[in-house]
Amino acid sequence: MREAAFVKQNKEKWIAFEKAIHENLKISPDQLADYYIHLTNDLSYAQTYYPNSKTLLYLNSLASQAHQKIYINKKESKNRIVEFWKTEFPLFFSQHQKTLLYTFLIFATACCIGIISALNDSSFLRLILGDAYVNETLNNIEKGDPTAIYKSGSMVGSFLGITINNIRVAFLAYAFGVITSVGTAYILFSNGIMLGAFITFFYTKGVLFEASKAIWLHGTIEISVIIIAGCAGIVMGNSILFPKTYSRRVSFMKGAKDGLKIVVSTIPFFIIAGFIEGFITRYSNMPVWLAMFIIFGSLALIIFYYIIYPNLLKKTYEKQLHRVKTD
């Protein structure tokens, strides 16, 4: 599309949004968010097809003002926490799902490398997992309970310790983004290799299904959310490498805030994973159907909240915005 046609097609929408910002028109936060989503989509399009144009400068300026209006100056509601997880975050995250895909591919590639390495070099398992863990698990396998290590300690103590450690790993994956996306990619890669070696260890001992039935009870959410935290780090890291039309400092500040928002969204899921590992995983002798229900239910929860729900919400708000424009 030629730039003139692009401007003609969207200028009424931009002007309406600009008036809403500068004249403090009484529009709901939801409508304001709708405008913002459309604006960022137009900005992304302009960055691709009209670089260094006046249209791009205008949209970039308007987007910056809109971001301040929505995230800094708006009045906080009494249900601010609920609104964050229910509406604000899913709408925001819809623009970062491609980054999540890349993050998953990095982690999956590392996991495959871990599997291949462990299959071809028996010493690799001890190098990655440590002698103490390998020896203890070998003893447990001989006793007929390969996941007995998850049954030690008190339930509450395990729950708190595991949850805190998982949150620490998530913030570490995010924080390494400060040395660009390469830092977070390193964290993802090391964890992916460890997971691959971990899975292979049980496979080589012929207890993969029995072990997986217990480990993935909590591991489904735990691993998924580590990947999502990695997405947060890459968002921040990319803001340094690719500032686009912003100055590098402004781009980094925006990327850091966006990444932090993604990390914060994972905290409830880490609590759920910690609860499952502390209180449920120890009952590895549960019926297979119950274990599968928890595992696939956990996977469905992650996929729905981070992939399906943001897209559904975005489409709903786009329809509302269209109605507002045509009224």
Automatic annotation (TrEMBL):
- State the species of origin: Aquimarina mytili
Keywords, A to Z, come to:
Membrane, Transmembrane, Transmembrane helix
Question: By what name is this protein known?
Answer: Stage II sporulation protein M
Instruction: Write down the InterPro entries for this protein, in alphabetical order.
Output: SpoIIM-like
The protein's matches in Pfam families, at most eight in alphabetical order, are given as:
SpoIIM
Q: Which residues form a coiled coil?
A: none
Q: Locate the transmembrane regions by residue number.
A: 100-119, 155-176, 183-203, 215-241, 262-280, 286-309
